[in-house]
Amino acid sequence: MSKYGTGSVRTLPSGKVQLTVLEEAVGGKKYRKSFTGNSESECRRAYKQWLARSSEESAPAKETLTHAIDRWLEAYKEGQVSCGSMKNYQLYSKKIKEALGARLVTSVREYDLQTFLSSKSGESQSALGYYRIILKNTFNMLRKERIVSVSPAEDLTCPSFEIPEPEFYSRDDINTIIRFAREDENFGTAILIMLYTGIRPGEMCALTWEDIDLDAQIITINKGVGRVEGGYGIRPTKTKKVRHIAISDDLLPTLAARTDEGWVVKNRYRSYMAPKSFEHAYYKFFDRLNATRSKPITVLSPHKCRHSFATHLLSGGANIRAVQGFLGHSSVTTTQRYTHADIAEQRVTINKLSY
User: Fold this and answer.
1) CA nearest 345: which of 311, 300, 309, 313?
2) Phi and psi based region of residue 2 (left: phi greater than 0; alpha: psi -120 to 50; beta: remaining)
3) Chain segment 131-163, per-residue pLDDT in tens
4) Which residue in 187, 190, 201, 177 sits closest to 298, CA to CA?
5) pTM for the structure as a whole
6) What are the angstrom distances between the C-alpha of 349 and each of 159, 168, 173, 346?
7) What is the pLDDT of residues 58-79, one digit of tens each?
């Protein structure tokens, strides 16, 4: 911890050092400003450079939207969210700055922001949400600092977005995949685990044989492989919670026959697989499978194994709350997406009715 009045210094989980200082905005409002680097001295150099720039741009009315967004990211997001989330904030902030960043914050109107959002109507619901969060929170910060009197982002609405129904493998395709997976020594076990448990591909990458309790017939999901600072690494599950999945009678023989240790799927160095390597092995499995068939199976992404598990479990009469627990969803609303997929499958069947 630094001396009083010079800011506080802490070491982040990534090993980086972060200096946080208390600054005063127009009207006497206090706010925190953070600087991250490899050492305290590097952070303090960045702080001095920022002070020099700030003195040149001391008039708040001359602050651009780019400068304001960068301030918000540094103060409220850097070092406080996961590496993956931070990359998303930076990505979507960049797009906002490319379109509106040169504008003075005092000149930005609700019309400008709403027009920008409307121009992004073809992007995902997640992307639209990021745009709205960044704009709303940046202008809330400016309003609290009395740089703007009213936030033009307060009543922004995202373009209507229809969530597509999840894709999933049909029952016939799943039966074909399972038969082949039982004989495939390269990647078959991973395919079977995903289809019989619904775990995420990143969780499959991080699964070890120690997580599989054959006596209790339970698989413990407590980690995943995903983005960390500097690349990919082991991190908590998406919801930061541990969950337990019962091993089905159909999956148990495959797991009981294994005598390996460590990671269930390994790279050539016998360590965990990174997502790209896992995806490559997944598609290679289907290349081998389709090479044996006159009519190839349409290959869906690895995540669609999870969709298939949820869809067919619900169509088999499973309680939606139980499925929510299997999948590790924070909200049952997310799980309900798969009831829509089930209805889509029912439509295909009901149209075969020959009155």
Assistant:
1) 311
2) beta
3) 999 999 999 999 998 888 889 999 888 776 566
4) 177
5) 0.60
6) 34, 16, 16, 5
7) 555 589 999 999 999 999 988 7
